[in-house]
Structure formats: structure tokens, C-alpha cells
Design a protein that fits this description.
four-stranded antiparallel sheet; 107 residues
Amino acid sequence: MAERLPGAAKLPCGEMQRFELGGLPICVARVDDGRFFAVADTCTHEDQSISEGWLSSCEIECPRHNAIFSLETGEALSLPAEFPLQTFAIEVDGDDLLIDSRPDTAS
């Protein structure tokens, strides 16, 4: 089921923001080329908000222990994280974002 985030498509390139969808924390990132990604907002290594970290190209870095994840696949690219982040399908609808609150089956 897709949930609408009103105005979220106005997020500037190179930035990310935390949202709650049905009680589930999700990090929405807009990379430099304008594409949007949505991943679970909790690092799989420890309970840390991933949206408080750093965004570089299509990778996100956890602020606690610097684990790096792919925004495209959710894959953990560096230790100490070993498990991927859940990814979520995302679409742009005008100024809004539509996010499927079920984890993407591709991740």
C-alpha cells in the first residue's frame, strides 16, 4: 500500500529526511542526480537513525560506527554492518512522494 508524503518531493538534491509511515521510521534521500530512495531509518548494526548520517552519491553512512549502505539495494557495503537495510519503492507525484510501506521485494 502506497502512502503519500505531501510536499516531500521538494527535498533538495543531496539531502535526506526521516519520516514515519504507519509507525515505521523511513529515511528518504534525494541524490545529486535528483533520484529519490527510501530505506529503513534504523542501521542494521545498532539502533541508530541512518538519516542523521551522511549522504554521498547513492550511499548512506551511519553516524554511529560509519557503516555504509547502498541506497539502491540496501546492501551493507562496509563493516560493522553485515545486514542490508530494507528498501521501499518510491514514486514522485507532483510535489508529493508515494512510498510503498511494504519492503521492496528486490532487497
